[in-house]
Amino acid sequence: MTIAMSDLSVSETSTDISYDPARPPPLNYTLKTKNREIAIIVFFTLIFAEAGLLPLILFYSIRWGAHLDNTKNLAIITSTVGTYSGYKMARRSWYLFISDSSHQRRPIGAGRFGADAFTIQISLAMTGFFVPLIVGSSLNPGSVHTVAMSLSCFMIAFCFPLLITGLWPHKLKVPFRVSSMPSYTGLPPAVYTIVEDIIAVDGGGCVEFRQAWRIRYEHSAIMRRIVRVTSLWWGASGMLFAGAFIAIAWTTPDDIGYGIGWGLPWLWAMVSASLTVWWVSKELQREKEQWAHPGVHKVFSLHISQTIDEEKVAQEVNDFNDRNV
Question: Which of 262, 231, 88, 89 is nearest to 158 (CA)?
Answer without folding.
Answer: 231
